[in-house]
Specification:
CATH superfamily: GAF domain
CATH class: Alpha Beta
CATH architecture: 2-Layer Sandwich
Oligomer: single chain
Strand order of the largest sheet: 3-2-1-6-5-4
Largest sheet: 6 strands, antiparallel
Bound molecules: methionine sulfoxide
Structural class: alpha+beta
CATH topology: Beta-Lactamase
Length: 158
């Protein structure tokens, strides 16, 4: 197993995701531990796209609790239906927020975060967590991010 992400520079976002996906698949195939896998996915996404913050929140009882992440320290607990993460848990659908200040109830872990995408994680039909990616620029995420981040999340076996 390669313990290094191979990524050329000066290629498009979709091309980067296309190259990253099989590398993450190989990485996850050889490891069953969920924390180890979530940690490596966070690190790979941060390294390849230099996002401001990348990480996971996992459902524990009636809250999301902070899991493996890369970036500045963050809020540790988010209630069901609260913020972008709690809303994604509730709606069971990805949410793209071009400007966090315009999302009612957005939870500002950092004032530097300007836009955000959150993807639900499923075990069977149940949401067991979310992937949250933050950018320090407005309008950083689109359908390409949603498509590929959803594919990456589908690789995760809980
Ligand atoms: N902004 C998120 C909270 C998590 S941090 O961005 C890492 C939200 O509104 O749910």
């Amino acid at each position: 197993m390669s313990e290094q992400i191979i990524m050329p520079k000066n290629i498009s976002k979709a091309e980067k995701y296309d190259l990253l996906l099989p590398q993450l698949k190989s990485l996850l195939e050889v490891e069953q531990d969920i924390i180890a896998n979530l940690a490596n996915i966070s690190a790979a996404l941060k390294e390849v796209f230099d996002f401001f913050w990348v990480g996971f929140y996992l459902v524990k009882d009636d809250e999301l609790v902070l899991g493996p992440f890369q970036g500045p320290i963050a809020c540790t607990r988010i209630k069901y239906g609260r913020g972008v993460c709690g809303s994604t848990w509730k709606s069971e659908k990805a949410i793209i927020v071009p400007d966090v200040e315009k999302f009612p109830g957005h939870i500002a872990c950092s004032s530097l975060s300007k836009s955000e995408i959150v993807i639900p994680l499923f075990k069977g039909n149940s949401v067991v967590g979310v992937l949250d990616v933050d950018s320090d620029s407005y309008d950083s995420f689109d359908g390409i991010d949603e498509e590929y981040l959803t594919k990456i999340c589908a690789l995760i076996k809980f």
